[in-house]
Specification:
six-stranded mixed sheet, binds adenosine-5'-triphosphate, binds magnesium ion, nucleotide-binding, ATP hydrolysis activity, membrane, ABC transporter, ATP-binding protein
Length: 260
């Protein structure tokens, strides 16, 4: 999909070549408050990676650091072989916040266009890309609607489209579907899996919902209470699609619940 060339990654030697995000002893304090301590793991290219943990364990702070919104106090991380601080011009990380943050004064199309605002793509290429991604999330008929005219699930799709329009290598999501009703949430799970299959992007998402983690993720990191540390990384070795009626999935969910 798409025409923008990916940067040639330069991987460090001490991690496998297939790791797209590498974290080394990452720590963050807010004043006296220790929020993240010695976060040390790697996320593989193309995997769906979930982070669970109690409220206040630093999950959002973690995503804020990876996305470049916040700076860590110590430690380092690399994405696609690039160290933090070398990201200028590297726009291949999309960040979907917990709230959809749609601009009420812009139509669906113009909200999606927002994701491309700071790129050097030509006008025609931008338009084609926006149309493509609006189609991709099934919003073709609603491109000219205003945010207040569409449902919660559709708003979620717009937020997803706005993230995908830059063709991210890495999609970060902070409890993206938590405000949706169970049925819409489950629809969005299917949608995300379909888009993941299609693009091969790496997805890193934070959730309170252990079921959501077990249904979607290849691996789940369990953060400990403050300061957030990685207690354990759990492999979810189940084929997709995963049905909640499946006994293996139920067992995985029970196991994860015990670890939080
Ligand atoms: N900008 C900030 N300034 C000061 N303290 C902050 C800031 N951002 C977060 N914190 C504190 O850091 C801790 C971790 O916050 P964070 O939002 O990362 O937790 P979380 O795991 O995402 O929680 P939740 O599950 O409730 O979303 C909290 O105690 C919070 O009060
Ligand atoms: Mg949070």
């Amino acid at each position: 999909m798409g025409s923008v060339a990916y940067l040639e990654p330069v991987y460090s030697t001490d991690f496998a070549r297939s790791n797209i995000i590498e974290l080394k002893s990452l720590s963050k304090n807010f004043g006296e408050l220790k929020v993240l301590e010695n976060i040390d793991f790697a996320i593989r290219a193309g995997e769906i990676f979930a982070i669970i943990g109690t409220s206040g364990s630093g999950k959002s702070t973690f995503l804020n650091i990876i996305s470049g919104l916040l700076e860590q106090d110590s430690g380092s991380f690399r994405i696609s072989g690039k160290a933090s601080g070398q990201f200028s011009g590297w726009k291949r990380i999309a960040y979907m916040f917990q709230e959809d943050r749609l601009l009420p004064w812009r139509t669906v199309r113009d909200n999606v266009a927002f994701g491309l605002e700071n790129t050097s793509l030509g006008k025609q290429a931008k338009k084609a890309r926006i149309d493509e991604v609006i189609d991709l999330v099934g919003l073709h008929e609603f491109a000219d609607y205003w945010p207040h005219q569409i449902s919660g699930g559709m708003r979620s799709r717009v937020a997803l489209a706005r993230s995908l329009v830059i063709e991210p290598e890495v999609l970060l999501m902070d409890e993206p579907f938590s405000k949706l009703d169970a049925q819409t949430r489950s629809q969005m799970h299917g949608e995300l899996l379909r888009l993941h299959d299609l693009t091969g992007m790496t997805v890193v998402f934070v959730t309170h919902d252990v079921e959501e983690a077990a249904v979607l993720a290849d691996r789940v990191a369990v953060f400990s209470s403050r300061p957030g540390r990685v207690k354990e990384i759990v492999d979810v070795n189940l084929d997709r699609p995963r049905l909640l009626t499946d006994a293996h999935l139920s067992e995985q969910i029970r196991t994860l619940r015990k670890k939080i």
